[in-house]
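Q: I have 183 residues here and want to know how they pack in 3D. Can you give me a structure?
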Amino acid sequence: MQCIPFFSSLLALNHLDKEYTGWLFLPGMLFGETAAWWKNTPRRTPHEGIDMLFFADQGEQRRQLPAQALVPPIWAGEVVALFDDFLGSTVVVRHPVMDGQGWRLHSLYAHVRPLVECGVQVTAEEPLAMVANGKPRGMSAPPDHLHLSLAWLAPGWSATELNWPTLWTSPGIRLIDPLTPGL
């Protein structure tokens, strides 16, 4: 499995595939970083995924993901949770991928407006959400960016365990860098 088709689908759904030459990440936008790219103080916990906002176009100019950009799932799966976050909502998809010990792969798409409901089967070609274009609720993070996280969830653990305050501390969750080659 590779995330590369996800990036291609994201770009194609938003008619950016002919313009795009590469994602641009500020310090703090990548997995595990403790810097906060939108403020001068560090995060309380390491970043749980990646923040996608900027890309380079054919002219090597920095462009921004459009407001209300359509978001596909990384892989096919079932929507197993929807919950509010500080810029919109988070959609959680359970994928039919398990490790050798029964842990199940889940993807989380944050700061979005869902286009699906819980229990729906999704394919990697269709949008499941759009970037929320919301206003920060007491936070200084800019709207209009997609946060993407990947996590293994332990056997017997519910998708409701996948909430932002406990992602790093729960023993039933193992976070994965979405940019890891060979996923």
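Q: Anything worth noting?
A: The first strand starts at residue 20 and ends at 24. Residues 1-183 form a domain with the Glucose Permease (Domain IIA) fold (CATH 2.70.70.10).
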